[in-house]
Design brief:
With 484 residues, this protein is an alpha+beta fold. It has a domain of 249 residues: 3-Layer(aba) Sandwich (Beta-lactamase). The chain is 38% helix and 18% strand. The protein has 17 helices and 21 strands. The strands form seven sheets. The protein has a six-stranded mixed beta sheet with strand order 3-2-1-6-16-17, with helices on one face. A five-stranded antiparallel beta sheet has the order 8-7-21-20-19, sandwiched between helices. A hairpin with a 5-residue loop joins strand 16 and strand 17. The longest helix has 27 residues. The radius of gyration is 26 Å and the shape is globular. The termini are far apart.
Length: 484
C-alpha cells in the first residue's frame, strides 16, 4: 500500500473509531441524562401515547390527562392551574416538564421501577399502559388562603406541619396557567411563553424554594436560640439596648427601625428586645455570643447546608462570611450576607414549634399504582435537634410576646395563641424593603408553622406579612375544626 493510500486508510479508521465511540457515549453513557432532559421532546411525544398519572390534592386531581382525537393522544390539564402551578409545574411537548411534573415524571409516566409488575401485566393482558398517581400533602384551604393573600405582589408562603414536616401550603406569586404551556396548540404555547419571558418576574420561578432573600429580623430567632441554648441567658436576662450602636472597628452607627429608642434606660429583658425587634440589642448580643455560637445555631437549622429535595429541589440558604465583629453585628439582625429561602424560614418556626426537633419537609404523601393501590408512603424524617425542648419553650414564650405585645400584633387570632416574629429586610438598593413573618399556632399545641415573604413590599413585616400569616393559620385551623 503506497503512502498516500495508507494515510487515507488511517484517517478513515480514526474517523470510524471516533464515530463508534460517540455512538456508545450517546447510547450508553449519556442515555439516562438525555432521556431525562426536559427539552427531549421525542421522549415526551412517546409518553403522550399513554395516559399520564394524576397529581392529587385531598382527593382532587390538580393535574391529569384526558384523551383527545389529536395526533397526541392525551392532553395534560390543570383544573385549578394558577393555584397549584408553583407545585405542579407544567408538562409540555414544546418546553419539557418542570417542578413535580419533572421530579415525579417516572411515576406519572409509568416507567418507575415500582410499577414494573404493572407494566408486565400490561404486556400479558393487552391493557393500555398508564402512569401512577402522586398524592400530595397540601391542604386546599391553606393553599387558597396563601395564594389569595399574595395576590398582586411578588412573594411566597410556606406552611408546614411542624411535627412531621408535611408541606401544607407552597405558594409563589406571581403565578401562571400551566395549561397554556401544555396545550396542543404550538402557536399559543409559544406566544404564552414569550409573554411570561417578558415579565419583570418570571412566574415559573418558585419564590418559596428557589429564591433566597435577606432575612431581616426573623434571624433574631436564631440569635435568641443561640443565647438561650448557651445557658447564660433566659427570656428575662437584661441586655444592652441603646438607641444606636457603633459597630466595632468602624464609625458606622447601627440604628433601630425608625431611629427609635428601645428602652428609656438603654437596656431591657431579652424577651422585650425580641418583642419590639430591637436592632441594637441583637447586634450587640450576637457579638457577645461570638461567631461560632451564632453560626453553629444557624447551621443546626440547615442554613449553609447543601439544600435538599422534597422531591422539589430547595436551594440552600446561607449565613455568609463574617470577617469581623462589625459583620457579625449586621449578621445578627439578618442583614449583611444572610439570605434565606421562605422554606428555610418556615423550618425555623417549625423547629421551635416542635420542641426543638427539625423535621425534613416533604410534599409527596403517597405514590399510587394506576389501580389506586399505594406502592409507597412517605415516612417523616428528622433532620436534627437544634436546641432542647426547654429552649423551645422559652422561644415560644418570647414569640408569643411578639404577637401579643409587639411587632406581630396583626397576626393575632381570637381564641388562639399565636407565636411569631416579624422581619423587615433592607435590600441594599433604592428598592423598598422586603417583608417577613414566621410563626406557628396554637402556641401550646402547634398544628401549623408558616413563613410569609413579600419582595419589596415596603412598610414592615408586621404590617404586610403578618395578616397573610393570620389568614393562612385561620384557614387551616378552621378546616381542622380547631379554630378559635
Amino acid at each position: 500500500m503506497n503512502a498516500p493510500l495508507r494515510k487515507v486508510a488511517i484517517s478513515v479508521l480514526v474517523l470510524f473509531t471516533l464515530l463508534i465511540v460517540n455512538v456508545n457515549v450517546i447510547q450508553v453513557v449519556r442515555a439516562e441524562s438525555l432521556r431525562e432532559n426536559p427539552r427531549n421532546t421525542r421522549v415526551l411525544t412517546e409518553e403522550y401515547d399513554r395516559e399520564r398519572g394524576a397529581i392529587v390534592v385531598a382527593g382532587n386531581e390538580v393535574a391529569s390527562s384526558v384523551e383527545t382525537e389529536d395526533s397526541l393522544t392525551y392532553l395534560r390539564t390543570y383544573p385549578q392551574g394558577p393555584l397549584y402551578a408553583p407545585v405542579t409545574g407544567y408538562y409540555s411537548v414544546l418546553f419539557g416538564n418542570t417542578l413535580l411534573e419533572r421530579a415525579e415524571n417516572d411515576v406519572l409516566a409509568g416507567t418507575d421501577d415500582r410499577l414494573a409488575l404493572r407494566r408486565l401485566g400490561d404486556l400479558f393482558t393487552g391493557r393500555d399502559p398508564s402512569g401512577g398517581n402522586v398524592e400530595l400533602t397540601l391542604d386546599p384551604a391553606v393553599q387558597e388562603a396563601a395564594m389569595s393573600g399574595l395576590e398582586g405582589v411578588t412573594g411566597a408562603v410556606v406552611a408546614l406541619d411542624p411535627s412531621t414536616g408535611a408541606v401544607l401550603g407552597l405558594a409563589s406569586t406571581p403565578t401562571y396557567d400551566p395549561a397554556r404551556l401544555s396545550s396542543h396548540d404550538p402557536a399559543d404555547m409559544r406566544a404564552y411563553d414569550a409573554e411570561l419571558d417578558a415579565l419583570d418576574t418570571d412566574p415559573r420561578v418558585n419564590q418559596a424554594i428557589n429564591e433566597r432573600y435577606p432575612a431581616g429580623s426573623i434571624f433574631k430567632v436564631i440569635v435568641s436560640a443561640a443565647a438561650l441554648a448557651g445557658g447564660e441567658y433566659t427570656p428575662q436576662t437584661v441586655v444592652p439596648a441603646p438607641q444606636d450602636y457603633t459597630l466595632p472597628g468602624t464609625s458606622t452607627q447601627l440604628r433601630n427601625f425608625g431611629d427609635e429608642a428601645c428602652s428609656p434606660s438603654g437596656e431591657q429583658p431579652l424577651i422585650d428586645a425580641l418583642t419590639i425587634s430591637c436592632n441594637t440589642a441583637f447586634a450587640q448580643l450576637g457579638i457577645d455570643l461570638g461567631e461560632d455560637a451564632v453560626r453553629e445555631m444557624a447551621e443546626a437549622f440547615g442554613i449553609d447546608g447543601e439544600g435538599f429535595d422534597m422531591p422539589l429541589t430547595v436551594s440552600p440558604s446561607t449565613i455568609g462570611d463574617i470577617p469581623d465583629d462589625a459583620a457579625l453585628g449586621q449578621t445578627s439582625i439578618g442583614q449583611k450576607d444572610v439570605a434565606l429561602t421562605p422554606m428555610q424560614a418556615a423550618m425555623i418556626a417549625a423547629a421551635v414549634a416542635n420542641d426543638g426537633t427539625l423535621m425534613k419537609p416533604y410534599l409527596v404523601d403517597a405514590v399510587q399504582a394506576p389501580d389506586l393501590t399505594v406502592i409507597d408512603q412517605t415516612d417523616p424524617e428528622e433532620l436534627g435537634e437544634p436546641f432542647s425542648a426547654d429552649v423551645a419553650g422559652q422561644l415560644t414564650e418570647m414569640m408569643v410576646s411578639v404577637v401579643d405585645n409587639g411587632s406581630g400584633r396583626r397576626a393575632r387570632i381570637d381564641g388562639v395563641e399565636v407565636a411569631g416574629k416579624t422581619g423587615t429586610a433592607e435590600t441594599g438598593t433604592d428598592a423598598p424593603d422586603h417583608n417577613w413573618f414566621i410563626g406557628f399556632a396554637p402556641a401550646d399545641d402547634p398544628q401549623i408553622a408558616v413563613a410569609v415573604f413579600i419582595r419589596n413590599g415596603g412598610g414592615t413585616g408586621g404590617d404586610t406579612s403578618a395578616p397573610i400569616a393570620r389568614s393562612v393559620i385561620e384557614a387551616y385551623l378552621d378546616a381542622q375544626g380547631a379554630g378559635g
